[in-house]
Automatic annotation (TrEMBL):
The keyword Cell division does not apply. PROSITE patterns: FBOX (PS50181). The keyword RNA-binding does not apply. Keywords: Leucine-rich repeat, Ubl conjugation pathway. It comes from Canis lupus familiaris. This is F-box and leucine rich repeat protein 13. Residues 152-198 form the F-box domain. InterPro entries: F-box_dom, FBXL15_LRR, Leu-rich_rpt_Cys-con_subtyp, LRR_dom_sf. The lineage of its organism: Eukaryota, Metazoa, Chordata, Craniata, Vertebrata. Signal peptide: none annotated.
Length: 452
């Protein structure tokens, strides 16, 4: 270390010591000036800050309380306004209803008076015409005799309820023809009540698929009953039935084009069906599996002469919630059904009232025992041409039901199958003669009668 650095270090150390000791001496020697004033200022600042925080806290509480009260007052005011508006609407609607009833009654009275006057005028003309020229009995209802009275009786002047009742008895074809008469008649045929029930079976030879689809699309919310019996329709047309969400009754019996795929679309769209007729169709177990899933409220089911499904398909009716509300079940002509399927069915369908198993040649006495145990509410039982069911079992069953039809004979050849359920050829099937009658022995008897 050089002497210069040593001198610098000593000088710095000496200066630091002097400064430190001088500051300490100054603090001790010189008393504090105005210490009380400084403390007073600090105390004032502390008090002022504390008061500010207290005011801020109190203001927040007051603000939240005021906001809550304002919200309650606003809600109360809105409720009062709604009540006032509601009462105003009630008063307005009541006055409008009274006035509408008065006008409707007045119009009804005027129409009735007008109709009576027209009827009296027509009767007077008929009497005058009858006095002037006697009409023979065979021509009493001819066009000439009524020519003077018909033009004056306008059906469009009748009340809407009377017009609907008149058009209710017309078929679909006649209804369409009436709609083409004039504009007023067309408006009368567009009443929604006339399209609650549509029967396409009576016009199946002249109606087109396009018209069926357009009709269902237009009246899909009003249709409650549909009848397609014997109609030869395309799959797309059958799928359009799913548009009728409020459908309650559906008859697709004898439809050769009905498939499981079509029934899937119908089932998904029409879950409220209560009556379903699938007689003489080609449905399989796939359709039988859809019924309990989409039709839990089904009450009437007809599967007559449907020979494509098996015992497994009939057991599907009891899956999950199942079709346990069935009241009417028609299995006539289902030659593939055995006792095992009927055992499962009778164990679940406790509300069954009517059962038709005519032509089910594989059913035995065991089936009747299962019915006695499970179907306590059974009232009508039809067992025509069930050769494996004994007369003793049928007699015991007759005491449990109100009406029973039983015939142990083999099914006739015109049924299309033999006593074993095997289909017959065209040569083996003999058609009925015109003078030949079908006789059924011991067809209906009660519990007091004996089976011969």
């Amino acid at each position: 270390m050089t002497p210069e650095l040593m001198i610098k270090a000593c000088t710095f150390y000496t200066g630091h010591l002097v400064k430190t000791h001088f500051c300490i001496w100054r603090d001790i020697a010189i008393p504090l000036i105005n210490e009380e004033n400084i403390l007073a200022e600090k105390m004032e600042k502390a008090i002022e800050y504390d008061n500010f925080r207290l005011q801020k806290y109190v203001f927040r509480l007051w603000h939240s309380y005021a906001a809550g009260q304002k919200k309650l007052l606003t809600e109360a005011l809105l409720r009062i306004r709604k009540m006032c508006h509601h009462y105003k609407l009630i008063i307005t609607l009541t006055k409008w209803r009274d006035k509408a009833r008065y006008e409707y009654k007045k119009r009804e009275d005027e129409l009735m008076l007008k109709h009576e006057l027209q009827l009296r005028k027509w009767r007077s003309k008929v009497k005058v015409a009858a006095k002037e020229e006697p009409i023979p009995p065979e021509h009493s209802l001819s066009k000439a005799s009524l020519l003077g009275g018909i033009p004056e009786c306008d059906i469009s002047l009748l009340p809407e309820r009377a017009v609907s009742q008149i058009f209710y008895y017309l078929t679909l074809r006649e209804l369409v023809i009436c709609g083409q008469v004039c504009h007023s008649w067309m408006l009368m045929t567009q009443a929604s009540s006339l399209w609650n029930s549509i029967d396409f079976s009576k016009v199946k030879n002249i109606i087109t698929d396009k018209y069926i689809v357009s009709t269902l699309q237009r009246w899909r919310l009003n249709v409650l009953r549909l009848n397609f019996r014997g109609c030869l329709l395309r799959s797309k047309t059958l799928r359009s039935v799913s548009l009728c969400r409020n459908l309650q009754e559906l008859n697709v019996s004898d439809c050769p084009t009905l498939t499981d795929e079509s029934m899937r679309y119908i089932s998904e769209g029409c879950a409220g069906v209560l009556y379903l007729n699938l007689s003489n169709t080609t449905i399989t177990n796939r359709t039988m599996r859809l019924l309990p899933r989409y039709f839990p409220n089904l009450q009437n089911l007809s599967l007559a002469y449907c020979r494509k499904f098996t015992d497994k398909g009939l057991r599907y009716l009891n899956l999950g919630n199942g079709c346990h509300k069935l009241i009417y079940l028609d299995l006539s002509g289902c030659t593939q059904i055995t006792d095992s399927a009927m055992e499962m069915l009778s164990a679940k369908c406790h509300y069954l009232h009517i059962l038709d198993i005519s032509g089910c040649v594989l059913l035995t006495d065991q089936m009747l025992e299962d019915l006695q145990m499970g179907c306590k509410q059974l009232r009508i039982l039809k067992m025509q041409y069930c050769r494996l069911i004994s007369k003793e079992a049928a007699r015991r069953m007759s005491s449990m039901v109100q009406q029973q039809e039983y015939n142990p004979n083999d099914p006739p050849l015109w049924f299309g199958y033999d006593y074993e359920g095997k289909p017959l050829t065209k040569q083996e099937i003999t058609p009925l003669k015109e003078d030949e009658e079908i006789t059924v022995t011991d067809s209906i008897y009660s519990g007091e009668e004996e089976v011969v």
